[in-house]
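Quick start: read one record
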Amino acid sequence: MSAMRSLLLGLSLLALAVAGGCGEQKPRPNIVLVVLDTVRHDTEQQLTPAMSPTLTALAAESTVFDNAWATAPWTVPSHASMFTGRLASGHHCTHQNPHLDADKTTLAELLAADGYATAAFYSNPWLAGRTTGLLRGFEVQKESPVSGGLPGDQRTWRGDQGGRGSVTFFRRWIQKQAPEQPFFAFVNLLEAHLPYDPPPGVRQAMMPNLGADEQVTGQWGMEYQAGLHAFGDVDWARLRSLYWGDVATVDHLLSGVIASLAEFGLADNTVLIVCSDHGENLGEHELVDHQFSLHETLLAVPLYIRAPGYLVPGHRGDPVLLSDLFATVRELAQVSAGEDSRHSHSLLGEPEPASRPLVAEYAQPQKDLVGSLARLNPGLDRNRIERSLRTIRVGDIRLTLGSDGEVILNDLARDPQQAGNLAADRPADVAALRTLLDQELSVYRPGNSSEVKLDEATREQLRSLGYVR
């Protein structure tokens, strides 16, 4: 430990001792944030408890937020919101500027400066310093290969996109942590992301009628988005079965994280936060993957917080954003430093009012992605995908605006699948929500636009995930 880190830790412990003498403040807990990349909100409805035993057990011990929303439909801006407490318009970490600006202070930076040990375990290349810098402040950053496998494996493990490595390295790290220093650990499990290719055990249990080698590749996902596969020609039941098999795999990997906390006696003094960064389109709206859309299938996400002494287990239906995790973790860690955010409210207090507006954004897609799709299909109608989207929901009423002028109004209580469009019939609602959306985003200043140059190794990783060709 450096002299500066030792000094910060000492000051933090002294502050806690003084506060503790007054009987006002609890000891600071360990905090573990696990992001189940690409896992949909309806997991508990789609998988039986036998196929998702970890999430089923976790739900019984946690506060389950049934109305949680991502601020964006893909990895980079969604994680940036969790780590900064801002919407995409505030952190500017989007398709056009995927590297987090140096002036944006991250949650890990705040906690590390206040005496927490910090570590991140992941395989998604979009989280790495060479692409986005989203893990700034994590003193330990351990990336597992997206192709799977662990050191010493004779071959990669079917269905592994790095999750086994992330869970293994997390266990080894917490085993070495000093009991007197709290830690903040982040784990991203990528297995539900394209390609959908569950391991043999999951296949035998969940999809015995599918061939042993059947999968949905990232390349197929690109081809579908390029318009090379007609919607009616796709076996959507098969595709969904493979996806849900991958989610069952994620459930098993999550059990390794939880078991490690129990193994080293850390479960009682560790707050465990489990969420997804976004959902997935599985044929809904004739879409796959998580691009070109801001539908509920992408924005509604699972969120569980197991926080003994802080939150009472049970279900909450108040509207919350993933950006709220920034304020929530700050309060848990008793960190007063950092900028307050209009769009980050601590979830440890009273439930949010039902009228709280939820906002999400999708910037125009990457040039690399659009170029790849156009090369696959020179006749591609680029106008339908080269646009940005903004959306706001208040209660069940949702407005979505496209930069191409499209206006969509949905009443989710009557039309949860967002099949219709009420914009022409309810112009007053459109006008009111448009004004409110402008107000919500007006607190942010425009950011700069700059493309990140990817090295070939990173491009190959992203290619396997269906981001470039």
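Confidence is low (pLDDT under 50) at residues 1-23.
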